[in-house]
Amino acid sequence: MSARHLTIVGAGLAGGLLATLLAQRGWSVDVFERRGDPRVRGYAGGRSINLALAERGLHALRAAGADGAVLDKAVMMRGRMVHGADGQQQLLRYGRDDSEVIWSVSRGELNITLLDAAERAGARLHFDRRLDYVDFDARRAGFVDDSSGARTEHDFTALLGADGAGSALRTAMAAHSDLGERTEPLGHGYKELEIPPAPDGGFRIEPNALHIWPRGHYMCIALPNDERTFTVTLFLPTAGDPSFETIRTGEDAHTFFTRDFTDAVPLIPDLEQDFERNPIGTLSTLYLERWHLDDRAVLLGDAAHAMVPFHGQGMNCAFEDCVALADHLDRTEDRASAFAAFERERLPNARAIQAMALENYLEMRARVDEEDFLLQRALERELAERHPDRFVPRYAMVTFRRLPYATAFERGQVQRALLVEATRGRGSLDGIDRAWLDAEVARRLTPLPAGP
Ligand code: FAD
Ligand code: 8R5
Q: What is the pLDDT of residues 114-131, one digit of tens each?
């Protein structure tokens, strides 16, 4: 077997992109995927599910030459459309202009685009192959076809684990050596509902926004699909009141929505059926202390660092992992060193985005409605304009820039402290000492390099 051969487990979002990047760089690549080929049987994921694609993910797609095909079918989201309890709507822009936006893309279409790109680049894709066991000493992996029960074996030089949050490779690695694994459940779950097109075939609400209904301890969001529907997600505690324990039936959901999400009720005609048919999704953060097993296996994407969804960065981070891993493998002859360097670079950044994703839940569900938050936001905007090279809002550092997540997290803490200090006890921005602020910005924040 050649030294330039690699085996990827999972042909989801990270697996498809990683296979493309490696095959394009001349690696011999085999990919094993549990499910069938979505291009043959229609996408097995079922309902139309969309994801928010931001600069980090887009940049990785550019590296694979797949950005054009993806953006062709994407819907631009300029900001948060906040739906108050009184039915009032307000658009809060994410960026400075339409160059700073996020994109709603269909998971099914994105997956297919990446599989096509991987095959075009020369990767060999094997569907209906669920990783079942790994013999690390013999460097042999066993797979099962879940529809026929057929078993196959494959000799590998190294396994790259892109098999998602429930990673079978991670389980196999953990049986071999301690990965320091810890899963932290959020205590909230989610349920997906659908807003169909309007009778005239158009969108029922503003298409170019990410809609949020913040309600304190819970919320709904809605992302547009290019077929003029919206996928609505209700995020709710798993216990307490209200929670998925108190809201069980479609009728419960209807009553709850009529009280708390009044303006959304006429938009979701199948609310009761959607609620009863769709499963409750679980949310947790997965922390590992180690992502690799010498030169034989490494984890990336959700398999290494599943996170809560509230920054919309799970896929974006997984795509950034792919570029980093491909770079380390290209740069470093010795595979164990390449895996170690990848882990050293990416693990602290994964920790940072995991923490920021947790924090963003509170901001989305509660803070967007609060007075002191809006004042801090107003000052943040002003400082970003006065000091564009030094003061970049944290959301923008995460979403529109590519500086390491850990750097965005650290600078965000410095900026937050300054905003809190400057606005404490105030009802407006009048009277804040701008000269002092400017000096503090210069003292506490070094200039960032220009560009994304
Ligand atoms: P996955 O995309 O889950 O791929 C794993 C693949 O491995 C799958 O194809 C699976 O079938 C396969 N597999 C699993 N087990 C085995 C096995 N034993 N053998 C072989 N193959 C196997 N992120 C964002 O950035 N923005 C968003 O807006 C966003 N929205 C989301 C909405 C929803 C509803 C969900 C659930 C997630 C969302 N995410 C979002 C997160 C994002 O989907 C994940 O972070 C991303 O898919 C991770 O990619 P991955 O390749 O690591 O895992
Ligand atoms: N993932 C997202 C954001 C940030 C929006 C903001 C938030 C649904 C299961 Cl909850 C969520 C964001 O701060 O204004 N950008 O992209 C995607 C999100 O949820 C996705 C759709 C989701 C997992 C269910």
A: 999 999 999 999 999 999
Give percent of the chain with pLDDT exceeding 70: 98
Q: What is the CA radius of gyration of the chain?
A: 23
Q: Which pLDDT does position 48 carry in this prediction?
A: 74
CA of 119 to the centre of ligand 1 (A): 20
Pairing assessment for the beta strands 5-9 and 28-32 based on DSSP bridges:
parallel
CA of 318 to the centre of ligand 1 (A): 9
Tokens representing residue 356 in the block: 């920021």
**Ligand 2 atom with least separation from CA of 192:** 24
Residue numbers in the chain where pLDDT is lower than 70? 1-2, 41-47
Nearest CA to ligand 1 atom 15: 163
* Annotated domain spans of the chain: 5-71+108-182+284-359, 186-283, 370-444
107 φψ region: left (φ > 0), alpha (ψ -120 to 50), beta (else)? alpha
pLDDT score at 2: 67
Residue from 7, 8, 9, 13 whose mutation best tests the ligand 1 pocket (most atoms within 8 A of CB): 13
The residue whose CA is least distant from atom 22 of ligand 2 is 309
Which pTM was predicted? 0.98
User: Tokens for 112?
Assistant: 């297919």
- Spatial CA neighbour of 76 closest among 97, 61, 60: 97
Considering the domain 5-71+108-182+284-359 in this protein, what is its CATH number? 3.50.50.60
CB 142 within 8 A of CB 133: yes
Phi first, then psi, for residue 230 (nearest 5°) are: -125, 140
